[in-house]
Write a structure and sequence with these properties.
Length: about 180
């Protein structure tokens, strides 16, 4: 799922068409707005991936800590007299470990952290290009390909992260870009 920014003038296929026309005409005034839009969109994706990483970390802890505690109780009660308690705790710990393995929150957290860091680097790169007025065909083309590669290879964003971003964006005036899930 990709997030597109509804208030941006450069959305979806129009973005690629606008970009191609801006490069062909070598019109620097037309390249700057699209770079600004990509920067703002990248900042949104960076936030959403960071939010998703925090969520996955919380899920990982929520599954791991109880499983460790239940495993410890199960191991210590084996030597005691209550075999039913030991068996129940062992079964519950096994179920939690199974869920943790199936859901793989640790791996998802790492993918979201990597995507957030990549978008942050892209934002810095775009800001450098804009600040140094390096709106050459090569520089803008490199940003375009890097942006599209990140869109294609980034981890799937959960709807809770998109909703968190929407809540934050609603606090700002309409000039701020907000996402529209396609």
């Amino acid at each position: 799922m990709h997030i597109f920014f509804a208030r941006s003038a450069f959305v979806g296929q129009d973005s690629a068409h606008y970009f191609a026309h801006a490069i062909q005409t070598k019109n620097m005034e037309r390249q700057q707005p699209i770079l600004c839009a990509w920067r703002e969109q990248s900042m949104g994706y960076q936030f959403m991936h960071a939010h998703a990483a925090k969520r996955e970390r919380a899920l990982d802890c929520a599954l791991t800590v109880p499983a460790i505690v239940l495993g410890g109780i199960s191991g210590s009660t084996i030597f005691g007299s209550d075999a039913v308690l030991a068996g129940g705790c062992g079964l519950a710990a096994t179920i939690l470990y199974g869920l943790r393995t199936f859901l793989a929150p640790g791996e998802k957290k790492q993918r979201h952290q990597d995507a957030s860091a990549s978008y942050k680097q892209l934002v810095h790169h775009i800001e450098w290009v804009l600040a140094h007025r390096c709106l050459t065909e090569v520089a803008v083309d490199a940003v375009y390909h890097r942006y599209n590669t990140l869109l294609e290879t980034s981890a799937h964003l959960p709807l809770t992260s998109v909703a968190a971003f929407r809540r934050i964006v609603e606090e700002f005036p309409p000039a701020v870009i907000d996402p529209d899930v396609v």
